[in-house]
Design a protein that fits this description.
The chain is built from 13 helices and twelve strands. It is an alpha/beta fold and about 325 residues long. It folds into two domains: about 120 residues, Rossmann fold; about 180 residues, Rossmann fold. The strands form two sheets. The protein has a seven-stranded parallel sheet with strand order 8-7-6-9-10-11-12, sandwiched between helices. α6 crosses α8.
Amino acid sequence: MRIAILDDYQNLALKLADWSALQQRCDVVVFDRHLSEEEAVIALQDFDAICLLRERMAVPRSLIERLPRLKWIAITGGKNRTLDMAAATERGIVVSAAPRGEAGGYATPELAWGLMIALARKIPQETLEMRNGGWQHTFGTALGGRTLGVVGLGRLGRHMVPIAQAFGMEVIAWSQNLTPEAASAAGAMYVTKDELFSRSDFISLHLVLSERTRHIVGRRELDLMKKSAYLVNTARGPLIDTPALIDVLQARGIAGAGLDTFDVEPLPADHPLRNLDNVLLTPHLGYTVEDLLRAFYEGTVENVTGFVDGAPLRVVRTE
């Protein structure tokens, strides 16, 4: 039996979990680079199972139908929105999920704060200047007394509130389903969408991607923002209309953006975002901390073992 571990960019899967018992029974192969769909069709032809890490690799119907030997898919986290579950079910492919657990559960909002502080205090620019022999070329923005707008006040969005308050920030929030009562219970003030974008000094996105939320930040919302404001996205790239954001950043319509997620990942080497000096880019680091990756891979080993033993664990059903 052949097992593929996909998109293990840092070669961590075999280090963070014990695959030795499985390696004695199966051929376990690590792919440490992202495969396009056409590359995956060729590379995965003779694999019985594939192990995904979050949504790094999409598994649409068009790929599933061209992998005739595939019998089982491992996902991490409760859902994978880039896996066509209906197509997998039709083919009789079993899907098992490795739970997140509590380890590293708030890694993504922690990164959001890292991006926010780095933008406000021009840390990347000053670090580069220091390495080149320079000294104090910029001045920063204090967080205290500023307004944080949180778009999406779910589990991760709520975690932003007490941290903002510790910095002495006012917190306002909006989402399509948010109520004033729910916002108040989380320690934030409910405002309209337009008010959030026009009042905030920093805006952080914490929404699930769906057809309702795709491009929820478009040119109209960006034009409402202050020229001194910053936008941070550690959720999903398509929440933002990227061409509109590039136009606004090029025109200095806002002070800058911190982006950890993108429409296409990995971000193409020639993407225009890479050339903007008022953007801080990170390669989808939100959940990539040792605590969380260890839990994901340990859970994946358990799930693979169940599959090999003929008794699949944590099976995900179609909705």
